[in-house]
Amino acid sequence: xxxxxxxEPTRWVLLASVLGFLVAxxxxxxxxxxxxxxxxxxxxxxxxxxxxxxxxxxxGWLARFLADFAEQFFRLPVAAPxxxxxxxxxxxxxxxxxxxxxxxxxxxxxxxxALFVWSFMRETGNLYITRYTIVFLGYLILILTALRFRxxxxxxxxxxxxxxxxxWALGSPVHRDYGKLWGIPRIGYDRVMGLDVxxxxxNWDKVLKLxxxxxxxxxxxxxxxxxxxxxxxxxxxxxxxxxxxxxTLLMSVATNLSTFTNTLAGEAWYQLGDMTIAEQSAIIALxxxxxxxxxxxxxxxxQVNLISGQEVTxxxxxxxxxxxxxxxxxxxxxxxxxxxxxxxxxxxRARSRLARTDMVHHSDNPRAILTGLLxxxxxxxxxxxxxxxxxxxxxxxxxxxxxYSQDMIKAHIYHEAxxxxxxxxxxxxxQDAALYGVEPSTIDQMSWFFRRPDSYRTTYxxxxxxxxNAN
Length: 471
Prior knowledge:
The protein has 471 residues and is mainly alpha-helical.
């Protein structure tokens, strides 16, 4: 029996295809993992016939359908790079097959490699979506199919029919919304997206691990601060990371900000217990997202309405999520009437933190909102820590002293702020410091600080001194 022998060019093509696949898979799996996960958060694919018929119609329906179907798997660490690597490898191989009809093997491989790299770089773009790659691959397949016909008359007729099919099923091959012609990987920004993703998943240890390398960005410090607050360490470790004023504590929610910023801004407010701003964040992000949809925003809207007691509205969102592949179990578990005891206890605790005043408000007055949350639930230690740190980041020591109580929270930056305030009041004595729980050793450290400030970079003294010098 004769064994199938591969020709030399075929071996090189297979080797190049395998190598390209492994490079693409490894890059998106290990070096650029959160880029694709965030894409999934802006996608919602429902296994519902009416939804499919209403959503995927008109020009480009097939490309949109395939892209949304594929992107739902992007929340999985191996499946996401597997999908992208397969698409990119298919582009390279199909390009090679087309070029081989007109030229030799080596030039064909060069063109295929160029198109592979071009498609790969476009995939790293921040606002790029999978549909663009599918459209490009789809048209390459149609071109290869048309070139298979040998008779000129048949080829021309087939080309015309396939072009019409492509415009109908894939959309126009040239479109202003198909993203930039070139992309560049931004590894640092992918880490910020990772902080955002892990924050939304409440993986606080993972957030702190990603924060180990200080990126000196507002968004990165914001996620670090929220993770430390959720772990109960905000007052102890606030200045172990770069800070840029109150924006690194609480970010504004506004229609003139990006989807990324609005989405991230809602995370702290949700954990603090302000469902109004958390809902505003999700709605604005939903409207501004690339496809005006997104599983992450629907999940947040369901959570907000459950906590707020709006069960009818919550059921609407949960009903949508129950028709998805990966959120179905969660949606059914959260459905009113089907909740287990643990879920009911969680919702009950969250409801106890809601502000008592029933009014529409915005995120432009964080201090008033935090004060309202504490009036509703004085035991809300998260809100207390945020209020105290907000006072300190605003250099508002008078309000800090009113908000602070040694019986509630003890942390070294709070004691350091107390000593600054006491010195401003000419009350720097051990007796007055003891009234606020400050030990004599902290007073000694303050005297050493003025001798060697750079040795105390993680203190509030250093932060406050820099602010005074800057003014």
